[in-house]
Amino acid sequence: MNKSAFVEKMMASDKFASKKEAETALSVVLDTIVDSVANEDGVTFVGFGSFIPKRKESREAFNPRTKEKISIPEKVVPAFKAGSSFKDAVNK
Fold it and tell me: I need a labelling partner for 13 at 20 to 30 A (CA). Which of 64, 67, 71, 79 fits?
């Protein structure tokens, strides 16, 4: 499901007066999650799950084409850990 289909599904709940209102609500939620994780804060929705930043340590690797060693710098990547209610709903 893409973003526009998701907004349509949100509209089916009759909780939004207009499509624009639903799109704005979704954008605000997603932007807030992205900003929080980018600032290395987690976002937790009890029962649904947590969006967390994970730190990947720097490491040595090699270029498979040239076999040359390269250094991969430390970085932070986004991660999602599903909550128990979410897992139960998916596995019923």
Answer: 79
